[in-house]
Amino acid sequence: MNQTQVKVSFAAATIALGTIVPVAFAAQSPTAAVNSTATAESSGAANSTSTVKSSAAATPDVAVTPSVVKNDMSAAVAWLDKNGISSMPDWTAVAQYAATGQFAKIPLPKNYVSGLKTSTDYARAILGLLADGLDPHSFQGVNLVAKLAATQLTSGANEGKFTDNMNGTGTDLINNQAWAIIALQDAGGASYNKAAAAMWLINHQNKDGGFGYSATYSTSDADDTAAAIVALRLLGFTKDSAPVSAALQYLKTQQAADGGLVNGSTTSNSDSTGVTIDALASVGVQATDWSTKQGGNPVSALLSFYNAKNGGFNYDNTGSEWSGVSTLSTRDSIFGLAAYRSGQSVYQRLQHRELNQLDPYWAHIYAAGGAWSNHKWVNWPALRSMAIAGSYLSSLTPQWQQVVAHHGEWVTQNGHKTWVQWGPQLANEALLDSFGLDTMHLNLINVR
């Protein structure tokens, strides 16, 4: 490529390399959600007035800062690696992937697949394999994706339902339907009736907008409602569609004074709060915007459950015998913090996506092999991270979008605040935080 007189610019003005800012039209990126032909409306799910429940815990005085979120999440991953691999290697892998964007590479037993009996077992296994960087379409001689898809009923009163058990029995579990959809959408390559799957789930939405665990025990709860929101989002529904909007309204009614979410009580807990933050991110809702009159929000509440003594997350802050650190509470807390940090649900991020397209502005610089900055030629490799961040600007985390908008950020170094201008270093950090190791898939550039 010739070193043509291409200058790195923004708003038609030549500026220094350290302040290169992507142009506004660079904010287009491929969508991860799969379009669905489902046009079903909520089955009687009415919008409910947002009410804040009382909470036994005081509003947490926890600062929501990128460093606090990052540090607490890293400690939680380390705790879960020590305590969760033996009992739940698959969920530990998903949590590790959520936090780092890197494949977990957690070894699985040779008889792992033979121990899977229910469709939720298969869904969990598919997600764990994806987080491990393994192929659920062919693992230990089994196509888990095809087998799970084959449990969907194609006729009758429960058309669209994935049976509760892999032997084709059971039509009670609502929770099972949501997780089957999530797993199949993440894995891809599954042949099933998406519209019918969505319709069955929506038909089991309660009038208060929430979802319950099963048709038998159908009382709405935050955890199962969060899973249903993610499932519907992966099928193409948005926060403005009737079922999702009603589900979000229900979750608001389950918010305690400290900003966290409750489940069958008036006290918030880390499980419900973590999975709700993940669900909110899946439909583009910033969890910190859900603040209460007392000043709490789901993220500050979640951080209040962090146990600094061991690095895990308490279930709640009541001090009861079941309120301490557990593998599940730590897992769900990681999901919530990772979603807040990345701006996406971990189940959206598990849908593999290659960041391999440049917008016209950066494509011009790529074609030239680089650009001039401060009368010096800068070769393309040095601009690569900025080009990808610019081309996928709207997919960066909200925090990094703000850094780009301000052309840099203030950081504390040796006790002093220092201004760091937007450039290759910050762009690399933005890509890692927003996409994890997906940013390694940048070798093939498709100019659009």
Helix/strand layout:
Blueprint: E1 9-10, E2 13-14, E3 52-53, H1 66-83, H2 89-100, H3 119-132, H4 144-149, H5 174-187, H6 194-203, H7 222-234, H8 242-253, E4 255-256, H9 270-282, H10 298-304, H11 327-342, H12 346-349, E5 357-358, H13 360-368, E6 370-373, E7 376-379, H14 380-391, H15 398-405, E8 408-413, E9 416-421, H16 424-435, E10 446-447
Parallel strand pairs: 3-4, 5-10
Antiparallel strand pairs: 1-2, 6-7, 8-9
Helix pairs in contact: 1-2, 1-11, 2-3, 2-11, 3-5, 5-6, 5-7, 7-8, 7-9, 9-10, 9-11, 13-14, 14-16
What this model shows, in words?
By secondary structure, the protein is mainly α. The protein has two domains: 115 residues, no CATH class; 298 residues, Glycosyltransferase (Alpha/alpha barrel). 40% of the residues lie in helices and 7% in strands. It has a two-stranded antiparallel sheet. The chain has a two-stranded parallel sheet with strand order 3-4. The radius of gyration is 23 Å and the shape is globular. The N terminus is likely disordered.
In short:
This is Squalene cyclase C-terminal domain-containing protein. By secondary structure, the chain is mostly helical.
Beta-strand residue percentage? 5-15%
By secondary-structure content and strand pairing, the structural class works out as mainly alpha
For the record, the count of structural domains works out to 2
Major beta sheet, strand line-up: 1-2
Indicate the mean pLDDT.
85
The biggest sheet amounts to: 2 strands, antiparallel
The rounded Rg comes to 23 Å
- Give the proportion of residues in helices: 40-55%
Number of helices: 16
Overall morphology? globular
Q: Report the CATH architecture of the largest domain.
A: Alpha/alpha barrel
DSSP summary, beta strand count: 10
The poorly predicted ranges are: 1-57, 437-445
Signal peptide: 1-26
Organism: Alicyclobacillus mengziensis
Protein name: Squalene cyclase C-terminal domain-containing protein
Keywords: Signal
